[in-house]
Amino acid sequence: MNAPGDEKVKIRLATTSLAGCFGCHMSFLDIDERIFELAEIAELDRSPLTDIKHFGPCDIALVEGGVCNAENVHVARELRASAKILVAVGACAINGGLPALRNRLDIDTILTRVYRDPITDQPCVPNSRELPLPLDKVYPLNEIVRVDYSLPGCPPSGDAIWKFLTDLILGRMPRLDHSLMRYD
User: In this structure, how many other beta carbons lie within 10 angstroms of the beta carbon of residue 5?
Assistant: First the structure.
């Protein structure tokens, strides 16, 4: 047991997923047993990995996914306000990724084609305050909030995430060589 004042101060790390496939969080879990090393130096704040729902102040925030609705905008802004360093993780956060394929279509057209009554084949777009308002298109994270770093990949590998995070935590400029880059 540590004597008072001997405890290491852990960095606070938050993660969130916006419009995407959740593959970047799966890659985060691919750091495998290094998660124990990370737990020695970092405390996870809001994250799908912890099920904490609200952001507190954090040192590093990892955001995967593009921004496609009003809730995504709110989460991105809340996290940006709470984080010292904000990292866009993966193709969806960096450039909209696969969700941005809808950008060439009109949102009203998409909704009326997707939401149809199975019997009458008439449009029946859901209208509920519980559903977030869709945006006109899917935006990359940097068009909504200031992004400090981008970690490319689709998804980035667990090794790339580990290298990137440890560089940041140790105060080094994150650098990934070509062997760590992946687009599946």
Answer: 5
What is the token pair recorded at 68? 């496609």
Q: Are 133 and 70 in contact (CB under 8 A)?
A: yes
Task: At 165, list the tokens.
Answer: 């995070």
Per CATH, the number for 11-100+135-173 is 3.40.50.700
Backbone CA torsion sign across 167, 173, 177, 179? positive
Domain residues of the chain, as ranges? 11-100+135-173
CB 18 within 8 A of CB 68: yes
11-55 pLDDT, tens digit per residue, is: 999 999 999 999 999 999 999 999 999 989 998 888 777 777 777
